[in-house]
User: Fold these one by one.
Assistant:
Number 1:
Amino acid sequence: MIMNMCEVTEILYEGKSKILYRCKDEVLILVKYKDSVTAFNGEKSDELFGKGRLNAAISNLIYEYLEVNGIKTHLVKVIDESSVLVKKAEIIPAEVIVRNVAAGSFSKKYGVDEGVALPHPTVEFSLKSDTLGDPLINVSHITALGLATSAELEEMKRLSLLINELLSGLFQKAGIRLIDFKLEFGRAAESGELLLCDEISPDSCRLWQIGTDCKLDKDRYRRDLGGVLDSYEEVLRRLQGVEL
Ligand code: UDP
């Protein structure tokens, strides 16, 4: 039955870390996670055998947890260890970044040391554009460019803060501190309803081990710290150990 639903017809799009296949059922897409890892807008790239499987497993676990907690996501069905069936959605080209602790571009831009806890979570948007390098963009820019409505942006912000609370709790139980993360939302193909899309994995989050501040995320790759796959494996192992 599922195999009929996701009978693949052609590649729709190949990105840096995933391949999207068109399905016979037009409201579905088959997503295959690749083993590629990239940073700095694709300037640095490598193949890490097994990364696709790890990110798929971590993201699926998180999306299932979010669904149980009332967040509508694009996830339909896990197909195999690196492939999932998702609802087709029109991706809103404004990525949402939520931060609990200063790190990365926030630390650089605003001169705050990495690791400084923020008094409240911050939410920002960045334009999803590889050619422009995903610049920071504000709500007024986004509506002026017709990328999303004010109501959609308000809802994205509300959902992102709720997801932050849910994920911070989940990771804390796994002995991990959620520093920051990126989300993507889309409009479902038929209903137009807002869905959480893309993935949530150590590629799109900063995750520090509680007690040691050891980095368990893509910064290990960006900053040549080594042990990238081991740290992703550790995140999965810890999440699997949490009673959901
Ligand atoms: N992030 C992402 N994709 C992007 C940009 C950022 O997944 O295109 C994630 C990144 O992994 C981190 C958070 O969003 O968890 C904040 O990233 P930041 O703005 O600090 O940028 P970076 O320092 O990664 O360039």
Number 2:
Amino acid sequence: MTNKMWGGRFASGPAGIMEEINASIDFDKRLSAQDIAGSRAHCEMLAGAGIIAREDARAILKGLDTIASEIESGSFEFSRALEDIHMNIEARLAALIGPVAGKLHTARSRNDQVATDFKLYIRDALLQLDDLLCGLQQALAEKALAHASTVMPGFTHLQSAQPVTFGHHCLAYVEMFARDRSRFADARKRANECPLGAAALAGTSFPIDREQTAKALGFDAPAANSLDAVSDRDFVLETLSGASITAVHLSRLAEEIVIWSSPGFGLVKLSDRFTTGSSIMPQKRNPDAAELVRAKTGAVFGAFTQLLVVMKGLPLAYSKDMQEDKVPAFTALDTLSLMLAAMSGMVCDLEPQADAMAEAAGEGYSTATDLADWLVRSLDMPFRDAHRVTGRIVALAEASGMALEQVPLGDMQDIEPGITADIFSVLGVENSVQSRTSFGGTAPSNVRKMAQEWIKRLESDPTSG
Ligand code: ARG
């Protein structure tokens, strides 16, 4: 049997394998709500412009309502032979209301239809991501406030560098996720033009009103060029590119959680809710959720790469290649949503181990910069000289297995006679973090203020980013 919708010039139906490669219904049925919304807007416009009769439009709209409830209740039968969501719905409409259903496809093609459906879907997905990101920022900002003065080691090269506070570390991620949200908001702004009415590629000879359909579907305006309208998938690429950057951030945080929670570090305790045990080693507490967040990043990057490759050599306008945009997008969006939800849960439950953190913060001569800064401030020494003097004191401490604050004053004075006992006031980790009051620095007073500001901002305007 030839295809009911386009089989007019065909003598035989498709090979079985053709149906297999061609059908998209298994995945594009996720666009059913958007497809019906697009059809409603198109139908109302056709009637308004006098292209179809009012009573035909009424029958079509009523049929679409029935289909919407059939899909919602799960009684709708999707058919692979009907290829995709557009033809499944149209065929059902014909079964429900007869040949008048065929009028719905006037001045429209599946090419502008699918572009419109998918854009509507992506616009919603961007809002959902924003919501999840906001929740994660809230969890991090609350942790930051609670631990504004909890000292932990700050690392560069994963080597002890300078003490910081755990709150400061949490707020670093709040900033990253804020940039992610602004990238998604920006992508959404550019996804504001409606493809519907571009028809197959060249527009239509019917007197359609594209402003009307654009407005009805919540877009700002119709897309200005019909060729571009049907072949543009930038809105998906931008979303996946933003999603990839968010995944990078999540993966970095996940990696830190894995490191911090390992017994070698022991800086945080993960809750039972986000860890698993081992079937052979009873003592184990594995950070599986963090590891999986780290690993799932691969699926998000993969989806972005996949779509870039699908799109890169396509001539204008529509090619069937573009049907392969949906699986990677759905995969990436589902995966990222799960990663965000799991990360929010982990962050909420995370218990920093203040004593272990403070101890580790003092290791590795982490206050050496404070010592050098003291020399600069108190002895008016150029920083480069202070660095050299400090290096000699650190070497001495290391050789005798002492912490910096344990080096006797006399030994320090042998290296630099100007040093006084006042130097000991800057060698503790608490003093170190408290002194870092420069804007954006780790001083607990800064962190508390920033955390409070974030909490207020996220509460009062959750969509502000
Ligand atoms: N299922 C198709 C897709 O997702 C719809 C558009 C088909 N257009 C066509 N000319 N065959 O891209």
